[in-house]
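Researcher: Sequence of ABC transporter substrate-binding protein follows. Predict its structure.
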Amino acid sequence: MTARRPEAGEMERLLPSDPSVIGGHRLAGRLGAGGMGVVYLARSPHGAWCALKVIRAEYADDPGFRARFRREAELAARLTGRWTVPVVAADAEAPSPWLATAYVPGPSLAEAVALHGPWPEAQLRGLGTALAEALEGVHAAGLVHRDVKPANVLLAVDGPRLIDFGIARAVGATALTTDGTVVGSPGYLSPEQARGHTVGPPSDVFSLGCVLAHTATGRPAFGTGGAAAVLYRTVREEPDLDGVPEGLDGIVRRCLAKEPERRPSTRELRDALGEFAVEGWLPEGLPALVAVRAARVLDLPVPDPTVIAGPSPVDAPPSPVRRRLLVAGAALGVTAAAGAGAWWRWGRPGGAAGTGSARRSRQVVALLGSPDDPFFADHERGARLAVEQHGEDARRAFDLVLRTADDGGTAAGSAKAAARLAADPDVSVVIAAGGNTTVPAAVPPCTTARLTVLITRADTDDLNAVNTTTALVLRATRTIGPHAVLRYLNRAVQPARTVVVHDLATEVESLATVRITTVHGKLDSETAVEEVAADEDFTGAARRIAARPADAVLFAGVRPDRAAACARALRDAGHRGARVAGEHVLDGPFLTDGEGWRIGTSYTDASADSRTKAFAGAFRARHGRAPGPWAAEAYDAVRFAAHGLASVGDDGRSALRSELLRRPWQGITRLVSFDATSQYFQVGDDSGGFLFQVTGGAARFVCRSDDIARKR
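Model: Prediction complete. Tokens:
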């Protein structure tokens, strides 16, 4: 399990529902939380500080997972080198298994580089030598770490420590999990990991080379952005080593060789980098930071008992005390302040509370977007219906209030509105209903205030780093490709070849789709790429494609006018194969020229989708019209937020995101689930999207992606 380490040395306080003691270890605070559990700072029975990792009960109930956790503890206990963190206690048989390791109070290497910049050559050599020695011990134990990255290197006054062996495996194990997901962190994993091949010690050497390059330059060797783009560059392109000291350039390049056999061994690395010397091993400024962190922990008092003194915070049902916290009196409620200003609007009176609201607390859901956005009205109506239905449930533990905040349709307006929401302690969660221009600007102020943001529609690459924020994207994005049309091609069409048309007029936006379908093999057919320059029409490409008229075509672009031009050119050239694209082309001229095209979307047609008919009927009865795009998704976003708020009590604002990451949640539109490590939205059979067809100048719903039948 990889849990988020708090930024800048932050330690979060214990929640009222957290235990006081686990396995004789007295808990002092939370170091991080992820979808699979919590990591606490704890004091051992002997008085030593340690990091105690606890697995949530729903994972521990899986015998296979419990066996893997037991194995992780056993493997980690075999590592005794001075640059790895020792396991001090573990209990794989507890209701919620736990593992305690010695606590290193220093910052991570990632944080140190972010705060103080690149390292000089002398300190880089010491860092590389110590980490190479750590990996030598790992490999001697018959293991491969598989997740060597700056965030997994902690800095102590006497040297670095390599941590987190949660995905370590025996030498020769595959780099894929059982569901085919690549294991590791994009930007630091090796080409063989990126391809899902078997990995060995050279894979860790490659990752160490990435760590040294990042530390030397202050930036990842294979750039930033979506996972697909970074993996592609790792496999196909040379690293960016501009800024690596000349004396280290050669050895770092050898570490980053694409072929494992060309990389140095850890012994060769140590010989090339020299001996480690404790004196002066940290660059200027960092010894003080390490000392401050150590002093902060040493000065901690003996922790006060929390509400529960049981075995685990994550496997117990809500206690009566926790329940009482959820239904605290009206003094904790929200009142309508006249001075709030016109930048947002309250929900209709009675839309949330119903009778008896004085006995319940209120949770405020803010819908952030622009009334001028063509999709906003349906967002608001769908969200309001969810709030009103929540208020009709006599069993509810709290009332919901819906506010709408106007972002003005601009990035600056979005940032300003989000800052106001973040400054209002009554707001429990923000639903960002805007598009790719406005939503990214709303995330930073909410992150600073630890205010959870749920993103329904936007899918720009600028949101690929939300796993380091308080935001959660509730949809499949173009980083993983248009899932419904990929499934349509693989299951229903099954062409011999698919031509991916890369529209360079939107090169940045289109690149993720090109990479996911070619480099990462999400299409079962043979693939070819046709690049069309921004100042070209599609005539030449269409003629070449039509030479094999049965080939399928996937348009990798986002502009409706360019998609329309491509559609006209293919039609005029006599192409007869399947033609598909993503949701962004569904506008203007394409609806006229794209007759017969299949389009993958992340929103449903609630009136045509059999699984949303009840919602559509209620929507029509409430608002006097059929729901449009994103109405059902906004309805689900409110219900998803309410589901999380019901479990976090009065710590809702700070704890909501962690609670929402805990387990999958089934809405009317999709299963909402997040990867435990990356915290990205997980795309599966029941969460991948929807298929439409352009017919008669409109997009008509066909089916959900999981209902696409395999060709017989």
